[in-house]
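Students often ask why we bother encoding 3D structure as a string. The short answer is that it lets us treat folding as translation between two languages. Here is a chain of 355 residues written in the first language.
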Amino acid sequence: MQYTPLHDEHVADGGKVVDFHGWALPIQFTGILDEHAHTRTKASVFDCSHMAEFTIRGRDAIQAYSGLVCSDVEKIVPGRGRYGMMLNDSGGIIDDLITIKLAEDELYVVTNAGPAARVAERICGGNPGAEDVSAHTAKIDIQGPLSREILVGEGIAEAGSLKYFQACRAAWRGTELIVSRTGYTGELGYELFVANEAAPALWRALRAHDAVRPAGLGARDTLRTEMGYLLSGQDFDESRTPLEAGAESFVAWDTPFTGRDALLEQRERGGYPLLSGIRTGDRRAPRPGFAICLGDESVGTVTSGTYGPSVGHGIGLAYLQQDVAAPGTGLNAGPKHIAVETARPPFYGQGTCRT
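And here it is in the second language, the structure alphabet:
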């Protein structure tokens, strides 16, 4: 089991700690529904220090990295980030990631915990300009409508001017930070990257604000599902492509990248399943692994599903045959044949992430 620099803080706060991809992380503190609502209305802090971070410096190193992801790295302007995916030769998704351009010759890349070793091998192998800095880096997410006000009050003035998917270097009480206006909740929020040794003090300073509470993996999952955000290893893996995962808009078709030929062939062939939103008419929720049926015929499988506290009914994501994936199609899910309808995410439309 691996422990983040904030583990003792979670124990002191009464967090219920579970094993998440080999990391000891809190699933909840005061309860998933309470933490979900607090994030939507005020601000919550999440420990995401299990995630992986890489620096890539120099034009040659950046060019080598750009061939590994399906987004157009060269078009990212300094101070901005871009969502993308790393693919295998068959077009399957190894992981999704965010690439931040801190300067013309410097990138900062953030990826997930599950495939971190495979991603690190691809990014750093044979690329002397790339460095895996995960072991030295903590990641604290502050998410919610009051997050900007709180960070500016803490002296991180740069947070006040950052727009959605912008990022910069900053400082807090003499400690260097990278601040990115991104997140996984649909609310106004920031991801803070800081050295391990400084993370507990920063966490406690944020927690000291009356409007801030800690939140765990449970609320993180309900919040992201309401927005239709994908979860690595659950909504996609190497057996799924960006076309199937509904991520075609993030593919830069005019740039060379690993897996491009396979994606072009799949796009031309067509007929592949599509990751689609589904919703119920009550509190019952589709659960991962549930079969989706049209009558008695199986037409897909649920990958993510939960009760959506902000919308008041069950929601989820499922891979469906294309002929039933159009929004408004009536289907049923699971052994109890829960009535579901296809719907286009996000399920929750009042998020503040772009404000």
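Translate back mentally: The first strand starts at residue 2 and ends at 3. Keep this in mind for the problem set.
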